[in-house]
Amino acid sequence: MWGQPPRLPALSAAAGSAQRSEARSRLDFARKFRIAYPPNAKLLCRRNRGITPIKKKGRLRFGTMHPLDNVVWTALTTRQANLAESFDQARRFAPEISAIGGFLEPTSRGYESLAGLLSPGKTVNLALDVPYQPRPGWNLILGTPMPQMVYEGNGGSLAPQSVSDQEIVTLGPADVQEMMELTSLTKPGPFSKRTHEMGAYLGIRSHGKLIAMAGERMKVPGHTEVSAVCTHPEHTGHGYARILMTEVMQRIRGRGETPFLHVREDNVRAIELYQRLGFARRVLLHLAVLRKV
């Protein structure tokens, strides 16, 4: 029973100081044990103060937010903070790197902070948890559902493809013009002249011309985004997107990270490819391209 602490036993005068000392030690131990290991009933906090009872069963979890929650903000405040421009509660990639931005929370303060990063007439791409609702000072240019998908395979879907290593080339500053022309034609997402600095980009050339590419974009703890997956319309049907994605994903997994990506919900063909590669939908986000008034 967990009740009153035990009483000291009655001691005769002849018991001596040794017996008294031992009894006091047992009492002290009992008191300390009650404090360190209270019964279940003692682990309840007062509910009228809005505090949830502490449960002994299971492990307490702190900081349960997933790294892919509010992914833009997370990227720009962790692994890619060096690429960020910031104002109060908003962050965005430098304009020559990407048009993507985000905030701590989609509140009035968040949007006001974001406005502090843009000049009138400039645009920003947001990944929102819910469809965009009109806000003063902003015009919606494009809004569409955008699933976030995460790789859940075991690597079996990433077997080497039937293309020689010589045909896959690493892209860099010297290839920027061709990369921008290809992404402008195929529109896989925002791509600027310094986007290649966000991660490794790979391509396939035919007769010296860049005909397909894929690479890495946002990076958060433990995860790297696969992005800019595109193939020239005259060269589709050869599996180039799968070949390049497989190589990019193998490199990400080789670093002990998990690949993820974003795709417009109406891009059914791409989603089917991603599912065959081992991706599964994690959550439905909403793309909002906004222009500052």
What do you see in this structure?
The chain is α+β, with helices and mostly antiparallel strands and 293 residues long. It folds into two domains: 71-145, no CATH class; 150-283, Aminopeptidase. 24% of the residues lie in helices and 28% in strands. The chain has six helices and eleven strands. The protein has helices at 16-36, 71-77, 108-115, 176-186, 240-254, 268-276; strands at residues 84-87, 90-93, 101-103, 123-128, 138-151, 168-171, 201-206, 209-220, 223-231, 258-262, 279-292. The chain has an eight-stranded mixed β-sheet. A hairpin with a 2-residue loop joins β7 (201-206) and β8 (209-220).
* Name of the CATH superfamily of the largest domain: Gcn5-related N-acetyltransferase (GNAT)
Biggest beta sheet summary: 8 strands, mixed
Strand order of the largest sheet: 4-11-5-10-9-8-7-6
β-strand amount: 25-35%
Query: What structural category characterises the helix and strand content?
Result: alpha+beta
The run of helices and strands is HHEEEHEEEHEEEHEHE
Shape: globular
Estimate the helix proportion, in percent: 10-25%
Question: What's the architecture of the largest domain in CATH terms?
Answer: 3-Layer(aba) Sandwich
**How large, in whole angstroms, is the Cα Rg?**
29 Å
Mean pLDDT: 83
Tally of individual helices: 6
- Compute the separation of the termini in Å: 71 Å
